[in-house]
Structures are given as C-alpha cells and as structure tokens.
TrEMBL record, chains A, B:
Residues 74-456 form the Amidohydrolase-related domain. Binds 1 zinc ion per subunit. Pfam families: Amidohydro_1. This is Guanine deaminase. SUPFAM superfamilies: Composite domain of metallo-dependent hydrolases, Metallo-dependent hydrolases. It comes from Westerdykella ornata. Belongs to the metallo-dependent hydrolases superfamily. ATZ/TRZ family. Catalyzes the hydrolytic deamination of guanine, producing xanthine and ammonia. The keyword Magnesium does not apply.
Length: 464, 464
C-alpha cells in the first residue's frame, strides 16, 4: 500500500521558514533538516553546510540529500480544516445567492450525483490532486451522504498520501427528498459503516481518519444530532459541522430549535461539542456561545473566502484569538472559490482589514498570523499539533518546497511565467520573499510536497 | 517599428464573450470575427462555420484563420485604469502600514532608484510583460519623476505593443528631499519634455499617449497644481491623480488647503477636473464632491485590492454607477498586490459584498458588472470607448484568448496543472465557464493577447 511504502533517510538543505508563535516567523537560512525512514524529523540545524552536517551526524553520511536551489524555502504543509470535496465542480458558481438558496440551487444537486461512483472517482481524484498541488498536507473533508463515495475519497487520500479526515455527511431533514438520510437509524448505520471502513484501511489513522459529520443543525433533527453525538463518543471519532455562518441560518436554527438557548447550545445538548470538534465559520457567535465553545475545547475553522463570497460576514478572529480559542483556516469549497490555503491566508488578511475599517486597527491579522493559522493553528484544530505544523525534532516531515521566480537583468522574460506570479529581483530580504509569496504566490511556487516524509506532489521545477 | 508592423487579415473562430451592458454579457458560440490589416473588426458572425463565413465574405477567403480549440473564448482585452509601474518590486510588502507611512517606508525609496536607467529597464520590461500576460491591453501608468525612465517606459510599451497612458509623476512638496521636483518651473518643464517625447515616438497616439500626473494633492502646492492644469489644457493631454483614498489623507488635504471646499475642489480650482481626468480611488468622496466630478466629466478608477490591502475602505461603486459616474478598475500596484485585472474583478466583487454586509444586498456587484468595469468601463475612463472594450464592427481587435483546463475521465492529472486553476468537467454551460474563469482563472488561462490586431503575448498553449 502506498501509505506504508518506505522512504529514504533524507537531509533537506536550504532555507526553512515556520511559525514559532502566533506573531513570529523563524527564518533559518542555510538550514539542514534530517528526516528518518519513518518521516520523523531527527535534527534541525541552522547556518550550516553539508560537510558540517555529516560531521555532526555521522549516521547520516549515506542519507539522500535534497538541496533547495535558487530563491525559495521549505514551509510546513498547509492544513485545510474545512472543505467540501464534492462541491469542487461548482467552484465559482453562485451568482448573487446567499447560504440557504445557494444550497438548494447548486450544492444539493451536485452532491446527490455522487451516487455514481465513476463520477465520484473523477471529481475526488481531481480535487485531491488540486489540494496537494497547493501544499495542503492535511485536509478535513466533507464528502456526501453516500457511503461508497465517501469511502472512495478515503481510499484516494490514503493512496495519494494526503492526511485526511473524511466525513460521510449526515442530514435527515430540511433537505430535498432526493438527497437525505431516510431515517435516523439508517443515518447512524451509514456513518458507522464509513467510520469502520476508514479505520480498516488505515488502522493507525496516520493518514486517514473518519469524522462524524452532521451537515449543520437545520438539516438534522434533535434526535439525529444526539445519536451522532453518541456515535462520536462510542467511536472516539472527530466531529465536524457548521455553525453560525449566516444571519438567515441563525434565524432558522432559532425557529427549528425553540428550546435551545443558542445555536451553540443545539450542538452542546447533543454532545457534539468536544475537544475533537471542528466548527466551521462561527461568524455571528455571541460572547456566551464563544465561551461555551472554549469551555468544551471545540475548535474553529475560519473560512474567510467563503464568508465573503456568499456575503455571510467577517468572523471576529482577533477576538477569538484574544480569548484563547483555537483557530485554523478552511477553504470551504465551493462556498469558497479556491482550494488554496495560501489564498485563504490572503482572504483572512483582507477580512481582518474589513473588520479593522469598523473595529479599529487591532483587528488586523498580519502575514505571520495568517501563516500561523494555516499551519500550527490548523494542526491544533485537527488534533495534530504534536505531529505537524512546524519543524522541530520529533515532528513529522509534512512540508512544501517553495520556489520563487527570479527576474534577470533586463527584465524581459518573453512573457514566460511558468515559475509563477512572484518576481524576486535579488535585493529582497528573506522576510520580504516570504511576504511576496504570501501576497502573490500560487501553486506554481509549490514545487514539491511531502507528507510524513513521502513525496506526494512535485512539479517540473522540483530538481530542475 | 513594431507598433506599425503589418498584420495579416485574420478570421477568429470560436466562442466570443463581451459585455453589452453593465449587467449583460453576450456569449456568441461558434462565432467568427474578421479583423483587417489595420486591426479593425470588419464583421462579427454568430452560430456559423468557416464555410459560411467564406461564402458570406468572399474577400476573406485568403485570410488567416485562428481557431480556438477546446474550452475557451475570446474576451476583450482588459483595461487597467491606474497602476504604478515602478512599484512592482514592492508587491506584497506593506506589513500593517496605511497610506502615508507606506509611502515613506516602501514607495519613495523604490521610485527614487529609477534615476538608474538600467534598473528602470529591468523593472519596467518585467512589469509590462506581466500586465500583458494577464490580458491587459491598455494601461494607465504612473512612472516616476524621472524623465528618461518615464520615456523608457513609453518606449517599452510601444515596442511591446501595449496601449498605454504614461505619466511622469509631479511632486514638489511634502516628499523626501531626495525624491521630488525642485521647483514648479522644473516640474512643468520635465512634464512637458516627457509629453513631447511620447508624442514624438507615437504621433497618432494609437499605442502610447502622455498623461499629466500630479502624484496627489498633498505632494503638490496649489501653484504647482494650477500650472499642471494649465499644461494639460495647452497640450490637450489626459490627467491622472489620486483622490480621497484614505481618511488620514483627507484630513491632511483639509489642513494643507484650508481655503478649499473639499479635496475635489482642490483639483477643480486648479483646472484638473476635465473629461480626460482619471481619479483613482474616491473611497471617501462626499455626495457633493461626486456631483462635481460628474459635472466636470471626470472618471473614477476603482482600486479595490489596494483599498483593502492598506485598509483605506470600500468605495461605494453601486452609488457611483447609479448616479452615472464613469468607473473602471485599477490594479494600483503596489498598494494593490497583483497586476491582474481579473484578480481586480474578484476584488471588486468582494469589496461590494463587504459594503453589502452593512448597506444591504443592492451594493453587490455581479460577475457581469465586474467584467463590464474591466472592459467597457475602463475604455470610457481612458477615453477609448469608441475603439476598444467590446467586439463590434469598427472597433479595434484588443482581445485575449482564454483557454480553460479540462478534467478527463478518472480525474487524475498526476498533479500537472500547467493549464491553470480552472477545472471544466464538461457539463458546464458557457456562462458557467465564464464564471469559473472569473472566480478562479489566472494568467495561465490567458494564452494569447492582441492589441489592434497585433499578437503581443502568447503562451505555449496558444495553438498547441
């Protein structure tokens, strides 16, 4: 099986960049990182060269060496804490709709079509390729209600080597007759079947894990939500759902659950708020709800591109961070219009600026903060903060090699920009280069991606 | 000279898409557009094929034929109504600054370095390549205070065939000692010298034109502004400047021009508001100022990416359009972080949604409206609405060939995405394809660009 194929002991030479705190990047120029056969980082050296590395670590004299040439750096793999793989073909299609009519018009018909496994194969395979190409090494996926297609998505992730939380979507009400769970019993049985399958193909859960996935409160009855809470408890599984994305949605939840104190209380009552819970959006959460989420140890997936595209609002991320909530980024395709977490970093910066226009400068997120949310923040959201998100001894090598474009004397490149949208002129500091990448970079700059030491994506520019 | 090189009479076959009104796109499938040796559109046919075209237009039987294969369409070239070519190397570098400290920290030192012509050659050549690669066929450029470097930018545009308004920047106060005009007389003489030079290299003004460019009110004295107004009048030149971008800037203008009724009045008094004037930003204009601008026939360049990045605000574009102001899009590099007008379309959509979050749904711009601003709106801003911006007989062939990516059965592309970020699965309508391009497309999708019939940019995918 691809996931367990052996990898050579490897020394990665070049600049490495990672977040050491919410506001600080570490830039290690002339670095060397040693990764063993199990994909574990065994040493991290700065300001060094290969001779010194071999001297200091004689056991590594026969290790493979990967030397990052030209402008560029190693960066931790991105963690996408919320996206919908089956909605990928709908990217860019929403017109002027907002959440609830958008679901009916675009989303449900597309998701329903995943009863056809060959269609699921095409779309999921394409989407996993896409997310890998953008440097996403871990992804929390919503699938559809269909068990076979959901299991197929887990197979594809395992085979391609992308870490994934894969969730069969549960929805037993307020959904079209043609696309819903027919009863609570069948819903729980189907979710259980998918959990069992995913654990059977990757018993250690190193690469793929199941995740209990009530679509969102309006599409599940109270009894169904409670049964899912119970299922998650029994199976010790992760949980993902949406919360407080849009004002109309909040009004609907209030109407559907008149006895609940709040949207958050609906989930809390059902036993769905745990330290393993990922709550997408949270744009309009009250102070009281935020505190309940914090008390339960549940996490927030911030999806700014989607929140902007369907005019949901701008989540108060500075306030979330100040009170100690755990926050990561989610692309939320196809409410979001891009599978790239780098684009989501930009969107997080923009939406924080829109908050700043009303709330004051304190609301602004810096480049460093956005990158933190995209890596260490995301790792904490999916419960993997001890394994990925940064480059320390003992962590696993989930990384991307970033290469930037170089402008030659004279400047004329005859219109060839295969090396991507970032222009480096040569006088920029290492920090400038990181900033240029964050503001202008795309998948062309992500020339290689590793998960747990395994090379899972590469472009023609890797080792050219 | 490249600009006057002859081009073959050409029939362009394939789908063409353009805006016919602010809210309506026309999508002509199986179209044919005939472009003569002068780059003028001579016929536009829909739902046709080459045999019928030859029958109907026998004079064109020997014309060259360009057949757009696969997913894609012809679209009018984009018009960038405001950008700063010398700031290109600073793209992505602004941290948390806002307008005034950003100018001192990043902008002035970079612009001052354009006293070095070889540096100017490298940066300008690179930037013109970049804007062409994004389908920008007409661009209003701010250069720097330096006459030789400004003239060089005009030379490069003429040689590469990009239509450009090229402006020597005028600034005689509130600017660093190392980077400013030393007197009003020298400022006017230098601006005049650059106007004369640009008119000498392209006497018809078909490709390059000069534009009088007071940086913005705070960096010019009243007398200097009036002298520039006089210069524009005498030379019948276009004018470009910034207005009401940022609240601190507005406060500064009020302090510097205590006798003026408003920021707009400062320019109006100096004779700088004419039908040939491009005003960038206009985020915080009062109703009264908007009316003066409309009365004078001056135009607005909307620069949403920049306005967001440096937290200037969200311009009320719906209100501008409703009152009949002429509006185009500007990338405003490097306040804006991308040279792409397609990205600017997205940014215009986003910022309209941020306004909608406070002002209501009416504020939202649709995809079609953003594309209108990027083409016909921009054409009207630069005074070329009779020549470019759409595909009608008598207009000039300023166009881009857009090709989209095709997902094959099975979906696995082995991570190769040379054909860009847009995935077309085959079941999408032509309108869906346009939407996917707007939300996800990039320069990889722009495989060829023509200005006045001349091929000015192509990628490997053109005719592959």
């Amino acid at each position: 099986m691809a996931a367990s194929s052996s990898i050579p002991k490897t020394i990665y030479l070049g600049t490495f960049v990672h977040c050491v705190s919410l506001s600080d990047l570490e830039i290690g120029e002339n670095g060397a990182i040693g990764v063993d056969e199990n994909g574990i980082i065994r040493f991290v050296e700065k300001d060094t060269e290969l001779g010194h590395v071999h001297e200091k670590h004689p056991d590594w004299n026969n290790a493979e060496v990967i030397h990052l040439k030209g402008n560029g750096f190693y960066f931790p793999g991105f963690i996408d804490t919320h996206t919908h793989a089956p909605q990928h073909p709908n990217t860019g299609l929403f017109g002027k709709t907002t959440l609830l009519d958008w679901l009916d018009t675009y989303t449900f018909p597309m998701e329903a079509s995943f009863s056809d496994l060959s269609r699921a194969q095409t779309i999921y395979s394409n989407f996993v390729s896409r997310t890998l190409s953008h440097g996403t090494t871990t992804c929390a996926y919503y699938a559809t209600v269909h068990v076979p297609a959901t299991n197929l998505l887990a197979d594809i992730c395992l085979q391609r080597g992308q870490r994934a939380l894969v969730g069969r979507v549960c929805m037993n009400t307020m959904s079209p007759e043609y696309y819903r769970d027919q009863s609570i019993d069948s819903a729980i049985a189907d979710s259980k079947a998918s959990i069992d399958y995913i654990r059977s193909i990757d018993p250690t859960g190193d690469i793929v894990k199941p995740i209990v996935t009530p679509r969102f409160a309006p599409s599940c009855t109270s009894d169904c939500l409670s049964a899912l809470g119970q299922l998650a408890k029994e199976t010790e599984a992760h949980i993902q759902t949406h919360i407080s994305e849009n004002k109309n949605e909040n009004a609907l939840v209030k109407e559907l659950f008149p006895d609940s104190k709040s949207y958050t209380d609906v989930y809390d009552t059902a036993g769905l708020l745990t330290p393993k819970t990922i709550l997408a959006h949270g744009v309009h959460l009250s102070q009281e709800e935020r505190q309940v989420i914090k008390d339960r140890g549940a996490k927030i997936s911030h999806c700014p591109a989607s929140n902007t595209a369907i005019t949901s609002g701008c989540a108060p991320i500075r306030e979330f961070l100040d009170m100690g909530l755990t926050v990561g980024l989610g692309t939320d395709v196809s409410g979001g219009f891009s599978p790239s977490i780098l684009e989501e970093c930009r969107q997080a910066i923009w939406t924080s600026r829109f908050r700043a226009m009303h709330d004051g400068d304190e609301a602004k997120l810096s480049t460093q903060e956005a990158l933190y949310l995209a890596t260490r923040g995301g790792a904490a959201v999916v419960g993997m903060e001890d394994r990925v998100g940064g480059f320390e001894v003992g962590k696993e090598w989930d990384a991307q090699m970033i290469r930037l474009g170089e402008v030659k004397e004279g400047g004329d490149r005859e219109g060839r920009f295969d090396d991507g949208p970032v222009d480096v002129f040569g006088w920029e500091s290492a920090e400038d280069r990181v900033n240029k990448w964050v503001y202008s970079g795309d998948d062309r700059n992500c020339v290689a991606v590793w998960v747990k030491g395994r090379l899972v994506h590469r472009t023609a520019r890797f080792r050219d």
